[in-house]
From TrEMBL:
The keyword Signal applies. Residues 26-129 form the Ig-like domain. This is Ig-like domain-containing protein. Residues 1-26 form the signal peptide. It comes from Chiloscyllium punctatum (Brownbanded bambooshark).
């Protein structure tokens, strides 16, 4: 077999693999609630994501991100085991029977403001499936005097 024939065979193999990989990834429908959440600084927050998949999940990874920064990444195996789902004030819980996974933020701080997204990747059974929530905007208001209101000394908070 000449060099050109080998090159053509290799090219055909790459095209086949590329098409096969494109078909191997299907979406999972995920809904996320609430869409907007306003709390006072120090409050505890819970954000919910629910997925609609009729299959038994053998292995999956899910994560929570604030904007594009991953804040928590979790691994689930055998439909129940969860690993690495707590980081300081932030934790996650999951109920695969109801298809619900939740983000918990304890004692919110002003730096927690942002848009939070849940991501899910089902590894097994194949094909790999992925999904992403529609986002929850978290607004943490400072405790004490509200923004734009005068304190007893006449100062306006935020200016």
């Amino acid at each position: 077999m000449g060099f050109e024939a080998v090159l053509n065979t290799f090219t055909a193999l790459l095209v086949f693999l590329a098409l096969d990989l494109q078909g191997a990834c299907a979406d999972v429908l995920i809904s996320q609630t609430p869409s907007i959440l306003t709390v006072k600084e120090g409050a505890d927050v819970h954000v919910n994501c629910s997925l609609d998949t009729p299959q038994q999940i053998a292995e999956a990874f899910f994560e929570w991100a604030n904007e594009d920064d991953t804040i928590l990444s979790c691994k689930m195996q055998n439909y129940s085991h969860i690993e690495n789902c707590r980081h300081h004030r932030i934790s996650a819980s999951i109920n695969w029977n109801s298809g619900l996974f939740m983000l918990h933020i304890n004692s919110t701080q002003l730096k927690d403001n942002g848009t939070y997204y849940c991501h899910l990747q089902i590894e097994r059974p194949v094909p790999i499936k992925t999904g992403r929530g529609n986002g929850t905007v978290l607004i943490v208001e400072a405790s004490g005097i509200p923004f734009g209101v005068r304190d007893p000394l006449g100062r306006v908070r935020g200016f």
